[in-house]
Design brief:
about 220 residues; alpha/beta; five-stranded parallel beta sheet; 9 helices; 8 strands; about 45% helix; about 15% strand; globular; binds adenosine-5'-diphosphate; binds zinc ion
Length: about 220
């Protein structure tokens, strides 16, 4: 099964993708993570992407589609969670071609519906383990033991340079202008499923599980 998690910055795509990796053994393909790795390694792609990411704008379709192409095979047997890709109509077309070449399907496009104002708080409170990368939040998900990663026990954490209010506004504008318009394309194919991204992490997870297990998502809400 191959799925897309779609939603603005801070909607919870990375959090839910991480969980699906842990519980279902699927493979998370996050173009944001790939780009940050390229920036860190100082590759030609990283050098091109750095300033664009810091400004909160979109990196070119050619770069991100090539990154997905390079990483796609790793998910062949376990299924892919596309996290933060596609973000434009061009990227959606590129994904369709890449999957088609491998005889793979796209099963669900899961839209996380959220209230944009709440996202600013989610983004500015976001941090992650510097060692294993698992995500936390100043208010919504602190480590169980202070300053100690739940997963690996490390004591170093990091914040993204683009997780500030001003950049978030630009990223949201980019989402509205370029990413939201790909939804009708998937709606025509009957692939779009919506979940309430403002619910708790556990409730969002439950709604996604219901979709992946073929149950009507809304019907299982109590
Ligand atoms: P978020 O967690 O806010 O959804 P990501 O980690 O997915 O953000 O992306 C961070 C930044 O990386 C984006 O603001 C953009 O500059 C770049 N980026 C990531 N994925 C893409 C993509 N598919 N197309 C263009 N730019 C991307
Ligand atoms: P995205 O990948 O869509 O940009 P993240 O999964 O990184 O979003 O979530 C952004 C921040 O909000 C993180 O700090 C995360 O811990 C927190 N978060 C994610 N989902 C929820 C939720 N349902 N309720 C409250 N906080 C959440
Ligand atoms: Zn850790």
């Amino acid at each position: 099964m191959n799925i897309i998690l779609l939603g603005p910055p801070g909607a919870g795509k990375g959090t839910q993708a991480q969980r699906l990796v842990d519980t279902r053994g699927m493979v998370q393909l996050s173009t944001g993570d790939m780009l940050r790795a390229a920036v860190k390694a100082g590759t030609p792609v990283g050098l091109k992407a750095k300033a664009v990411m810091e400004a909160g704008e979109l990196v070119s379709d050619a770069i991100v589609s090539a990154l997905i192409g390079e990483h796609l095979d790793a998910s062949q047997d376990r299924g892919a969670i596309f996290d933060g890709f596609p973000r434009t109509k061009h990227q959606a077309a590129a994904l369709e071609m890449l999957l088609g070449e491998k005889g793979r399907t796209l099963d669900h496009v899961i839209e996380l519906e959220v209230d944009e104002e709440a996202l600013v708080e989610r983004i500015t409170g976001r941090f992650s383990c510097a060692n294993c990368g698992v995500g936390y939040h100043d208010r919504f998900k602190l480590p169980k033991v202070e300053k100690t990663c739940d997963v690996c026990g490390a004591h170093e954490f990091k914040r993204r340079p683009d997780d500030n209010e001003q950049t978030v506004r630009t990223r949201m504008a980019e989402y509205r202008a370029k990413t939201a318009p790909i939804l009708p394309y998937y709606e025509e194919r009957g692939l779009v499923r919506r979940v309430d991204g403002m619910a708790s992490v556990e409730e969002v997870a439950r709604q996604i599980d219901a979709i992946l297990d073929g149950l009507p998502a809304r019907a299982v809400r109590l």
